[in-house]
Amino acid sequence: MPRLVEESHWEYTLSGGEKQRLAFARLLIHRPDIVIMDEATSALDPSGQEHLMRRVIEQLPEATVISVGHRVELEKFHDRKILLAYHADGARLVRDENLAWPRSPSARLLSRLLAREKNAA
User: Fold this and answer.
1) At what angle do helices 16-30 and 46-59 cross, to 10 degrees?
2) Where do the domains of the chain lie?
3) Has domain 1-78 been given CATH number 3.20.20.140?
4) What are the tens digits of pLDDT across the range 7-38?
5) What is the rounded distance in angstroms from the CA atom of residue 117 to the CA atom of residue 107?
6) 3-state helix/strand/coil string of the chain
7) Model's pTM, two decimal places?
8) CB of 118 closer than 8 Å to CB of 93
9) What is the largest CA-CA distance in the chain?
10) In this structure, is the dihedral angle defined by the CA atoms of residues 54, 15, 34 and 67, taken in order, positive or negative?
């Protein structure tokens, strides 16, 4: 606690995992309706990832959580898995999998929006 108010170049002092844990703490404090994460757990070990993702799901049950990641273990925290492919004129939807029943109204809204976009394509 003595360093809590210390001003420093924390981006050079903290490890990748410490920075990611700090970002999760900020997320839980601010409690947004929509959370978008890009490789948010990449510097964490599997148990750290499990702990923090469970906290997000428990503490923000109504939030829509979108994450980009390469770890298969992240799938259990999401209702949908979307695979996109690069194309010169923009990304294209390759696959849209329903992983589980949506857990919240906002997740159901996202599912409907994605289905509408898929049908329009």
Assistant:
1) 10
2) 1-78, 80-121
3) no
4) 777 777 888 888 888 888 999 999 999 999 99
5) 15
6) CCCCCCCCCHHHHCCHHHHHHHHHHHHHHHCCCEEEEECCCCCCCHHHHHHHHHHHHHHCCCCEEEEECCCHHHHHHCCEEEEEECCCCCCEEEEEEECCCCCCHHHHHHHHHHHHHHHHC
7) 0.66
8) yes
9) 56
10) negative
